[in-house]
User: Fold these one by one.
Assistant:
Number 1:
Amino acid sequence: MVAGVITDLTDWLDRVSSHQWFLLVILVIAFLDSIIPIVPSETCVIIGGVAASLGTQNIFAVITAAAVGAFLGDNTAYLIGFRASDWFRRRAERKPKFAVKLAWAQSQIMQRGGLLLITARFIPGGRTALTLSCGITRQKRSWFVRWVALATVIWATYAALLGSIGGEAFEDDHAKAFTLAFSLAIAANIIIEVTRHLWKKRRAAARATVSAG
């Protein structure tokens, strides 16, 4: 049923993508997708990029609408997590296993920093889990805002340009465009994580050498 609704929504997005108010649709869907992961924001932005390649939308306007919507949505998810943080902490006090999971989430955020917010933005559902976790663990708001601003601009640019470059190839097959976008995002995440791991290992080795000397 959900798949059918998403298909119908995608078809509707395609039909209305030439209208100027479609930019508002992009903003709203990007906002909602940060809170409700089933909303297809990547597909919507890609459709906007395709429309730009056909001359019915402005690519910079598409990127701006997507980035603003995603930024507002991520900050809303953060605030939801922040306001619910006391409840999660009380739950952690009652349930040791939950406390371990909460501690793990906080340690991952601390270890990987803002880079994690960038990589998670390209994973549907993952970005919502992370932004909520940042609020729940009460990460510094100014830090969160800076990295989310960067992450949403990169994400919006990537999705819009993918649609624009694909143009007519994606016009009648948005599923292919989304699959390609998701696959490239996963590949990029793997490369980033491998690079981060190797860099961390190299730094540890360098510190060990200095200590030994």
Note: The chain is about 85% helix and 0% strand.
Number 2:
Amino acid sequence: MSTLAVDAIVDSSNGNTTTINGATPTAYNTMGKNRIINGAMEIDQRNAGASTAVSSTTQYMLDRWRAIEITDGGFSVERSTTAPAGYTNSMKFTITSADTSLAAGQLSGFDQFIEGYNAADLGFGTANAKTVTLSFWVRSSLTGTFSGALRNSATNRTYIFTYAISAADTWEYKTITVTGDTSGTWLTDNGIGIDVIWSFGTGTDWQGTAGSWSASGAFSTSGSVSLIGANGATFYITGVQLELGSVATEFERRPYGTELALCQRYYEKSYRPSSVPGSSGVPPGFITTLTNGVVTNSIAGVYYKVVKRAIPTVTVYNAVNGTSGQVYRESDASGITVSVQYDAETGFARLSLGTSKEDQYLWHFTASAEL
């Protein structure tokens, strides 16, 4: 049984608990309780801490986190060292181009898809649906009421939540308790089990009423702060946890290697942690020798460090200049186009070269099996 001890301010307008630059909640830790992966924003395989621009698209940022920006504006996102006590990293968003008048179908924010296997015990969609609690640390240059939601994979069941940011540029701790949904279809396999989403502003098509389950895909309220509407506005988040029960307990601290392995189920790279995929001049991931090209015209593939959620999309990179779809041939410094063959969740068997030249080939890869 977990216990909670925290200096807190209860906001009676929305039922959320807020701690402003106060003590981190303390409780007994339970291994595996947090359904969010990389909630402390430590893992960033794709960008290695570099700022990334997001505009008119959805794309993955820090591991397991997806940016949503379908407006006439745009924002940047990066791993930041600005963090509350007890944390070393956060995810920082900066509005780089504001959209002050969102069309009905436009939307912006970020989310994390929780795999169905990791949410199956919550019983959503059944009479035994269980209560869950979402908690996180947040800091923004804007104050007011913000919103987000829990949704199913079909985006036809949603629970909109709100939380208030009371002081600008100040870390605040938020908790939201949600009674489990007894209706709808909630996947319990390797598909999207629960989508946890935060809004930066939406058009009317994506707006609804907070505080109860509804048959829609909305994830914000009409009165929520529109971060995307304020050029230069910033938003930081870390310590994100979704857990079983009606009380927010201490953030689950998993070893770095464990957290990395959890991320690698969905995305893996052969590059060193500090190198962005596609970088040039980095140490080669693989040096493979072709000795019998006349027969197969191929070189051996790899086994992944972690078995993937599904058969991934593999991208091969020239290890010298970073060109995708190529390996580097050492004898003549050529970039040779390749294709992946016999791929599976555990790895791929070989790369087809389309050449019979016996030589050494240098290459890297990424494998993405995101939800």
Note: The chain is about 5% helix and 40% strand.
Number 3:
Amino acid sequence: MFEAAEGLRQELADLEAEMATPDFHADAARSRRVGRRYAQVAPIVAAFDERSRLAGDLAAATELAGEDPAFAAEASELAADLSAADERLTALLAPRDPNDACDAILEIKSGEGGEESALFAADLLNMYLRYADARGWKTEVLDAETTDLGGSKSVTVAFRGASGGAPDEAPFGLLKFEGGVHRVQRVPVTESQGRIHTSAAGVLVMPDVEPDEMVISDDDLRIDVYRSTGKGGQGVNTTDSAVRITHMPSGIVVTCQDQRSQLQNKEQALRILRARLAAQAAAEADQAASAARRSQVRTVDRSERIRTYNFPENRIADHRIGYKAHNLDQVLAGDLGAVIAALREADLALRLEAGADQV
């Protein structure tokens, strides 16, 4: 049942040998690639070793139980531990998104609802920044367009995981479930009659890939520069520092105007472009999968309304998995743990089912 884990033992040994070579850290791309794979394989081999140990101990305790009743109780405990180890190893071996161990870039855009939608987008931004802070992540606003009332027409933020964090706790692996249309129901600050309005904001989550992991040909790019608009400090709105990059093969357009120099805006725009291309490649891979798998991927389809935030009832509802809770105030304060855990559990069940279909 766990032959795949046994097969990873040699790969782990090869990775450890490569990491021990004198020139390993001289190549940043190589060390990052090998280190990421090591972080994925090592927990699986460790879990397999623990499972093998428990299986051996259980066999010995079961054999001795016929001679000494005291071993019967130990055998019962070991059986429970072995069952838990089986579940953990099964989860680690389930098919997974290769980008799960990546950092993330998240875009929030206001949608239906005008100024109220922009204010809600700002609330979502706050929620994610507080969630990141609680997890010890670093955040960086790459580009932002705000409104006079403090709302966000559009904002792009990078999330970098804590140093030494577990690969299954990386930003993209957790935040990818946030991609989609988020709907809010509340009385807007702009409403004088006290009526409840419904508006929405869109969230796009992408893996933050390094330049060497996503090589883009200069011949595929059209780069335009122009003067920044909107709020800005001295120098931001007085020079042609804003950058618009069009990736001609895909038609993806990225603009960035938040930084003070044209070079900085270009670098940020290219970073966002790499992330969008990586997300597009992942979506195309999903579409090429089996019909059954494609239906499952719809749970994170960014084109669908995924969640409703109802202020009068202090209720949050995730429509993909039927999750409901009356702690909206805590969620908006960054306490996203429960809803993300529920989404990860549902995703694991689908991945296990997909893995079983492939056997």
Note: The domain at 3-93 is CATH 1.20.58 (Methane Monooxygenase Hydroxylase; Chain G, domain 1).
Number 4:
Amino acid sequence: MILSVEDILMHPALGSVVRLQAATLLSIHEANPRMASIFATQQRWLMAHVALSLYFGRVGENAADGLVSSVFLDTIHEHGVASRNTAGAFLKELLQYGYVLPALLGMDRRVRPLRPAELSLQTVAAWLVVHLATLDGLDGGGRREKFLEQPQSLARIQPLISNGLVRSSAVREPAPTFSLFTWLNEGGIVMDWLISGLAEAAPGSTRIASAVGSFSELTDRLSLSRTHLQRKLRAAETLGSLGWTGERGKSPMWVSPAFLHEYHTAQAVKLAIIDSAFQRCLG
């Protein structure tokens, strides 16, 4: 059975499995900070998924052998993910760092396709494994093991995930506090860090303590500037979404139940899209 957004949000184990997921995603970031930072805003994350789905040849009638720049720019523009200029700059950055590479020329010598580097494919597969493990933690399924037995199925599953993400209004238009961070460079990592360090929330709690204790603890691990992070945290603080138990910036942080619900909802939407794609391919 495919888990719906409502199934996931109502599950009593959601808090614990999502904390574990956040901690595991942080470990992937720490293994390759440069790659993680390239995909560290929602816009870049969506562009990366679209690029990979085009490489796998499942998006658009003009899908060619490999990732073709013009098709990528058109697809990004059509879905309203970013402007063509932004998408072009993103693709150039991927080429610069070797995360995509020139592919062999096809029949049409005018088309110069690209392909993801092996490290890029491994990172996306690891990302998928983390989320499949989260889904298994909710219903005891064996998605993770089944995927690891058939890793080549990434070519069928990922395009369905990409399509679900770019077409989801909940993904494209997140709740206010979550949105503050998704468009911040490495903002998703900041949220994962806050959430992974949360204590169990007692019923009726208005503040849920996090193990994150200072600005320096955040900024020392990220390429994000201290000033930029402070600005976003102040905005979230104004919304009543987070704060500090003592001196601002130098004491343990807390998050509100409303912010935690925003985070859980965003994860539930993403996990439901992933489960639907998985079940269609390997269920």
Note: The beta strands are 100-102, 114-116, 208-209, 242-244, 253-255.
